[in-house]
Amino acid sequence: MLLYGWLERAVKEKGGTKALIYRDTYLSWRGLMHRVKRRATEFKTAGVRSGDLVGLMLGNVPDFVILSLALSKLEAIPLPLDPTTSTRELEMLMSLAPLRAVITRPRGGDAPLPDAPTKPGGATKNPPESRKRLQGTLLSCSVYTTEQRKLPRKKEERIAVVLVTGDSAGDPKPVERTCANLQAEADQVCEALSLDGEDRVLLTVPLFQSFGFDVGMVSALAAGATIYLEDEIAPSRIIKLVREQKVTLLPGGRPLFNQLSRLPANRPLAHKPARMLSLNGGLKSSALDTFKDKYGVGTLACFHTTETSTVSIDSKGRAPSSVGKPLGTTEVRVTNAKTGKPAGTGRKGILWIRGPAVSPLAMVHRPAQEGSVPVGTLDDEGWYHSGDFATVDRTGKITLQGREDDLVGIDGKRVALGEVEGCIEMYPNVSRAQARVITDPLGGPMVVAKVVVKAKSKKKIDPEAIIDHCARNLAPYKVPRRVEIVAALS
User: Fold this and answer.
1) Above 80 in pLDDT, residue 412?
2) Closest CA to 114 of 133, 136, 92
3) 232-405 belongs to which CATH class?
4) Across residues 459-487, what is the average pLDDT?
5) How far is residue 63's CA from residue 67's CA, in Å, rounded to a whole number?
6) So what's the pLDDT on residue 305?
7) Range(s) for CATH 3.40.50.12780 in the chain?
8) For residues 90-118, b (16+ Cβ closer than 10 Å) or e, as one string?
9) β-bridge mates for residue 433, sequence order
10) Using one digit for the tens of pLDDT, what is the confidence trace for 118-130?
11) E-only strand ranges, 148-289
């Protein structure tokens, strides 16, 4: 009941002040509580129990916050899902994380959700036992038959949320986050950014991503800050909201702040503070100077992953190449990639992370290999193998230096380039494929690919047909935006 407990505290302290604002409508803290209680009753009537996992396939809309809080009141567990999740990925996820219910918006062509397996890896399907609309909405609630999970005796060990990311093969990876994890995340971020009940947080980062959920919703609720939701990612609209609503915290990806730096602006922001929190790195050189000239503030780089929460923040914004120092009691260490021994100060190596906000990864399968800790898992001492190359200087500041696998980040989501290449190579008469990420000045980071056609093939391959093939088999953010047919790969 951690999230709901924060709501109760805010209602006592702030009552009728604005809590949640979306476009032309808003809810006070008391109004939000009323909506949450009503949805909690509706969930309970539908058969959702304490310990149950409930998927929320929603964007940045008030219902996402309301339903998350309602599930928290019941001690059920929200599992945020990208509304564009493919049927294949959803089936894989439901085999790993047995969902009691899934909340969805109207789907194109009224496409049905997949049946859930009766057990992990099982072939027998489990159709929904019921499917109803939530009262007064267009949202559908599909309820499945699952066993009720037992709650740990200690409240801090109970699961507060399950967030989904990708593993090194590109498959869905559910990550359990305990109440203790979320409390530590909220405490560290609120302290580092001096967040309190007077702050106004604009959330354009998708709430189904861990960065939006953690730094956005969790930290704002813990601080009692006013939350502004926006699902239209238009830089001109975003900066207009920042100015008009005197937004004090805007979490976002580097592409968003690059786009904001290109907008015409004739005056700096008139209010303070105005914190622009940039995921996994701030703006560089001329772009940073331009941003500061236009808005009177810089970007604050931070390092965040689904498994570790927020690791570090460059709260002063003075080192754009760095992602700052570890927060709170979070520890980091860098080891030599070959020997596994500690790397020297300022030397590149593999980054390991340990701290109270790091997930126990209870849903992640750990191969039984002696002396080996796979990327994305914990060792016996609780150190998380991040898979990131990094350096740590004498002052403790972290600088990211790439990955040891082929995972790349696109707008806060993980993409395994090997998965994209494998999908392309399944297309008829394709011999080999090579995928990479480029940054388009207007479109931001995107996947592109080079393709080699089989020597014996007499049929000409249309690059657009390969893109269509990928669109049918991959999540939208994984689909190559450009495919080039070449004689050989470099």
Assistant:
1) no
2) 92
3) alpha beta
4) 89
5) 6
6) 94
7) 232-405
8) bbbbbbbbbbbbbbbeeeeeeeebbebbe
9) 451
10) 655 555 577 788 8
11) 159-166, 172-178, 200-203, 226-229, 249-253, 275-279
